[in-house]
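Students often ask why inverse folding is considered easier than folding. One informal answer: many sequences map to the same fold, so there is more than one right answer. In these notes we will look at a single instance of the problem. The structure comes first.
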């Protein structure tokens, strides 16, 4: 597995484990973060290892999620780097 895929998996696992899985629903999480529900499904599938395709999350999408979760991108990347 290449380094880019490892980073994507770490990002998706963190988002899914800490936020999506604790949300009322995937739709609710998407709505609150102002992202598409299909994006949340991709994050979930990458996190759980069930995705059949690669997913490259945009910084814009990650920034929206972090903003709604009141965490800076810097803090986010520090958390997934542990």
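Output (designed amino acids):
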């Amino acid at each position: 597995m290449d380094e880019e895929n490892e980073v994507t998996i770490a990002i998706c696992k963190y988002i899914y484990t800490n936020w999506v899985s604790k949300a009322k629903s995937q739709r609710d999480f998407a709505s609150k973060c102002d992202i598409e529900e299909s994006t949340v499904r991709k994050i979930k599938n990458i996190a759980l290892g069930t995705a059949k395709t690669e997913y490259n999350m945009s910084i814009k999408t990650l920034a929206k999620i972090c903003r709604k979760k009141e965490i800076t991108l810097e803090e986010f990347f520090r958390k997934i780097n542990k």
